[in-house]
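Treating backbone geometry as a discrete language has practical consequences that deserve illustration. Part of our work consisted of pairing the sequence of a single chain with a tokenised description of its backbone. What the numbers capture is local backbone geometry rather than side-chain detail. For completeness, the protein is quoted in full, as a sequence line and a line of structure tokens:
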Amino acid sequence: MSESPYIHNVGMNNFQQLVLEKSMEKPVLVDFWADWCQPCQTIMPMLAKLAEEYAGKFELAKINADQEQELAGHFGIKSLPTMKLFFQGQLVDERMGAIPESEVRAMLDKHIVSESQKFIQAATMAYQQGQTEQALEILNHALANDPENAELKVTIAQLVYAEGDNDSAVALLDSLDEDGAKLDGAIKLRAEINMAAQLADLPALDQIEQRLADDPRDLEALLQKSRHLTAQGDYDNAMECLLEIMRIDRGYEDDAGRKGLLELFDMLGGEHPSVQKYRRKLFTLLH
């Protein structure tokens, strides 16, 4: 067994301390193994390597199932190796067999909170309590120590945009590298900013409705109506207007109907029910 500070031999006498209590601070990966188990011997070096590489972001608890039969029985261990992941006092994931390193990493990464995420959580809590300046101080301090962190930049952009500072939000989004620009938060905020810009100087909705009453194929009016409906949160009818533009003239304003739909999809995110519904409608129309 390594003398690593991140790897522990665990039994009934110290399970509470080294697994349950430790897991309140960070994930603890429990590895049930035995001397006779060849797959156990195969994955041990990989688990030890990960414990060193992650440098304390999780801890590895080794339980010899033959010597600790009470613990093995309590957790229903039927085959070896079996890995169980504890976080905040709860069993959150488990795997059986000599799984590949990539699968172990994926299991761990879901529950490991990065330093930047800790700052974001603290800032979010401060902002929700009305402490805007404190929230910005937390985020800007974190960004000063990690100036290329895209997640921090996007969070600051969201906050300053919510406070009405559009220029700073756009500048932060523009400073993102290619990967940062692909973050969901960046895509949604960029779409929201673009959508707000499109609402400026629009005619009143009743004027637009009158134009459509006179000519239901007035494409400019349909586009303007979709933007008004978006501002009101009536996303289904906004998307119907954009689909109608596509049905009438795909070439209007360089395919404005399809582009408007894609902007709305970005703004709302893929899990939004309207997005799921109108992605199908768009696919049907295109094909």
Observations:
- The chain has three domains: 7-109, 115-198, 201-286.
